[in-house]
Amino acid sequence: MYSNTRELLAISRERGLALWQVILENEQQLHEMTETQVFELLAQRYAVMAASASKALEQPCRTAGSLIEGITQDQYAYAKKGETLCGPLINRVMARALSCSEVNASMGRICAAPTAGSCGILPAVLISVSEQLGCTSRQTLEGLLTASGIGAIMMKNATVSGAEGGCQAECGVAAAMAAAAAVQMAGGNPSMIMNACALALMNVMGLVCDPVAGLVQVPCAQRNASQAVNALLSADLAMGGMVSIIPLDEVIEAMYRVGRLMPYQLRETALGGLAATPTGRAISNKIFGGPL
Amino acid sequence: MDISIFEVAGPVMIGPSSSHTAGAAKLARVARILVGQPFSHVSFGLHGSFARTYKGHGTDRALVAGALGLREDDERLARSFELAATQGITFDFHEIELDGAHENSVKITFTLKDRLQPPFTVVGSSVGGGQILITEINGFEAELTAQSPTLIISQYDKKGVVSEVSTVLANHNINIGVMKLSRKGKGELASCIIETDGEVPAAVVESLRQIKNVLTVCAISAI
Hints:
The complex is a heterodimer. Chain A is mostly helical. Chain A has helices at about 5-15, 20-30, 35-60, 70-80, 85-105, 120-135, 135-155, 160-165, 165-185, 190-205, 220-240, 250-260, 280-290; one strand at about 110. Chain A has one domain (about 5-290): 2-methylcitrate dehydratase PrpD, CATH 1.10.4100. Chain A contains 13 helices and one strand. The longest helix of chain A has 24 residues, at about 35-60. The relative contact order of chain A is 0.13. The interface of A and B includes residues 45, 48, 103 and 112 of A. Strand 1 of chain A pairs antiparallel with strand 1 of chain B, so a sheet runs across the interface.
């Protein structure tokens, strides 16, 4: 039916359907499922996302090496106080993204989106945008469907693995997916959705995967927070009329090629970037008794 | 688009890593199904990245959880060591080199309660996104992803066994997707792995067990 975002957009235009409707049809064919069954499964996934986005807001989760234990609680308390630079929406989005990361690092239950390391971005954006705009649960799930459908294209035509493409492939793809969801939920049109995706991915092009001590904690949690914000601002830019000069499919391809050009030290091996700093190495030595 | 949205928004799993935690748990859980009988000890030989980073990613607890039959999204996974103790199952971890194996590979050796039987071994890899590939079962080469319903049959390498197996399946309207045969030597022990398009009912598995020269039949549903 479609193998890239250009074809997906063309089908949506020809038939006058929303992107999520085309993605839904494809999914129904793939699994021989009814629309109700697909939405039930989506609701189950969303429930897991929502639980992980709130679990660490009020109580810290114990993590290996304690690198990010309690960071969510502090951020949430700050967001609630109200005296912030970026306002309640951005600050709550960041707290929710951090919560998912903290829960993930503590061996709690999460929904990978597209990976475990980037599991906070999409939930934080879905929940916060839904709250901000007063979306129904159906509208929120349509956002999730849009995001996952475009994510599937990126998984197919590029990669979502940090070991292959760096952080841009994990948190970058998650941000692009979340941007798509946000535009869908805010009532933007299919072109705006594609532009928001392209802008989000453009903003993160080249980001390396350099986990301290090889743990999915630092800088993963911080990048979940910042990429959730990237998703929101990309959505606003697109709905304000900004068009990505480079079409989304070409941005996806470029992201993949940048990943291929990255040295292996910057692809999840904990041999470069923040992991290779003196402090990063010292933390690794302390936890594992030596470098990885 | 042949990639499901649920592969992107999913899997639901216990963190922190789809390959080092969820995939590890799934590997051990499928291995437990393959063993199919009580065991007292499990030994995990860790290769590559599994050997280097297993502690930080909870790979150890995930493997034990899988061996106890817990699913990848079961929150008891983090407490699997304590659970194993209450079930009287012991375990150990050690580093090994598996020639040409994927970075995230493990050799799992089960010591069976039936002491007359030799240990049961399974070698497999966590290939990313929580997906697995089992490459060896009790010394027989395998190629098992557990993404479709699968039958694992051990038999004597005798004429007609394979044909009888496929006849039983055909008679029950079960289509064979992929079939892989291997044997230790002519006329000796052989192994047959069959991926089917639909689940294989227990009664059909029982009919397969009745076939002459078939030793064991293990059915794994799509997981």
